[in-house]
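[09:14] KT: can someone run the structure on this one? pasting the chain below
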Amino acid sequence: MSDEAVAALRAGQLILVPTDTVYGLCADAYREGPCRRLFAVKQRPETMPVQLLAADLDTILDAVPEARGRGAVLARALLPGPYTLILPNPARRFRWLSGTRPETIGVRVPNLPPPSLEVVRRVGAVAATSANCHGEPDPARLEDVPREILDACGAVVDAGELPGRPSTVLDISGPEPVVLREGAVPAEEALARVRDALSVSSGG
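[09:31] RB: done, structure tokens below
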């Protein structure tokens, strides 16, 4: 299954993979065309961002080296885990993923199930978003994924039922962390972890 999924991504197709929260719809992040198709299949406005997902933070930092520094320190305190972190992206890399805020980028390093982990490790990083039509419930099971999305995928990885609550979105690109969406991690817990990481990094 991993060979099929990797081949589909490299061929410019979309794939469906389980994460630590919900099923995700993924495309080759390094090419604009497959990412535009992801937006179209999900019926998601291209003005909205899509995350860059990888198996480890170092892969993210290799792809967006300008995120090294304070953002990377905070990210290491939280990842891997059920977070989407908004990091600085001053070079405006992966502009097709960033919506109306190209100076930032959303990144995700989940605790991936083994089949998904192998796929993502082999390709480096993927563009990822929940495998639902825009505005619809997040899919915890393959049966919850809309038929039009399944039909658009070149490969599907099944890991059974997932927790079903999306990642908590935390913007750490500015001077103060901001929770943009409360999800699998409560907002106060997420902010407390960031404050702890800041305290450690400053020697406080």
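[09:33] KT: thanks! The chain has a mean pLDDT of 95.
[09:34] RB: yep, looked fine to me
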